[in-house]
């Protein structure tokens, strides 16, 4: 049967379930440039409004994968497992997590992205390490994963990995079609399945600083992604984790690398340690590794040894001083009490304004920029004592960042109710 973009758009607009042929044709024709950007944008909007069935979503995701290259690590001597976070403020967990899981006996092929907007990208953080390179060819990636002293790699996804998703995501970004469970789930999972991992742990963030603001929407997204992974033969599980307040005490590239190194050295903020160990336990279990507790590999320095080897294998110097911003400014408390709220979105936006993030794809980021938090919700504060230190190379950005931060916290007489960091789990 001959298809046209208009007939596929109209079918979805009118609430029909697209068949396999229609899906394969439209994704392939879009990849080849036969379906125009405005037609794909119209289809994306129809999907936002009408949704997709599980069968449609499986096929759509398979078509996105088939638009490019699919990697295969099934011949590696160790089981492969990866993690994906839907993005949060101060979320540096991948940095300690990948070497930790490698130290437990799995291979971790992590393809990551650069940040856009208020959440930082893993590659931006790692690129603050002098010499470190994100671009590895598949042969080098494989040799690092096979190396018994390393076993973890964090690098940029090549242009040939799910190229249909790259083009579609750029359209969604400018046509109000990002917020759709099937489109987000297929976008994330097409890249993760194409990357060739045997197992996957998803960290789906919930809260003011996350894509998904409430538990119900996050559960729907997590369920869709777990089903997609499972249907594609990738053992997949999701944790739902809180993102109302930032993770750890730093938001910004080099600042977060330094905090990750503290965690690998056996210290670091308790929430970062808790989430790193929880995700590592899930990853190790999904990889089928028994009788190894990641908490031990963190405590005895094995994860730190892997980190140093992993950084060096990608050209980085793990001992080199990290970049520091030219200007710092400290914001002090104007009253005494307890910090009752610290909003993740406000901290993320302040770090972005200070230069830690980018407004447009391809913009440079400042490696030393960001926000250091001296208090977290529940901590006592004293008038005149530091609450935050702002770091930036652009002094002129400081007043706007301070205004953003000021709107993002409250000090009161009564400690806030403590909420758990891990809110739920989806998967077998
Ligand atoms: N991240 C992605 O890769 N795709 C989306 O659609 C949303 C977040």
Automatic annotation (TrEMBL):
> One GO molecular function term?
thymidine phosphorylase activity
Q: What is its EC number?
A: 2.4.2.4
One Pfam assignment = Glycos_trans_3N
Tell me the keywords, alphabetical order.
Glycosyltransferase, Transferase
User: Main EC class of this protein?
Assistant: transferase
GO CC terms:
cytosol
Under the heading InterPro entries, the entry gives:
Glycosyl_Trfase_fam3 (IPR000312), Glycosyl_Trfase_fam3_N_dom (IPR017459), Glycosyl_Trfase_fam3_N_dom_sf (IPR036320), Nuc_phospho_transferase (IPR035902), PYNP-like_C_sf (IPR036566), PYNP_C (IPR013102), Pyrmidine_PPas_bac/euk (IPR018090), Pyrmidine_PPase_CS (IPR017872)
Tell me if Glycosyltransferase is a UniProt keyword of this record.
Answer: yes
Q: Which residues form the Pyrimidine nucleoside phosphorylase C-terminal domain?
A: 338-412
Q: One GO BP annotation here? A: pyrimidine nucleoside metabolic process
Q: Which family does it belong to?
A: Belongs to the thymidine/pyrimidine-nucleoside phosphorylase family.
Q: Which NCBIfam families match?
A: PRK05820.1, Y_phosphoryl
Q: How does it assemble?
A: Homodimer.
Q: What is this protein called?
A: Thymidine phosphorylase
Q: Which gene encodes it?
A: deoA
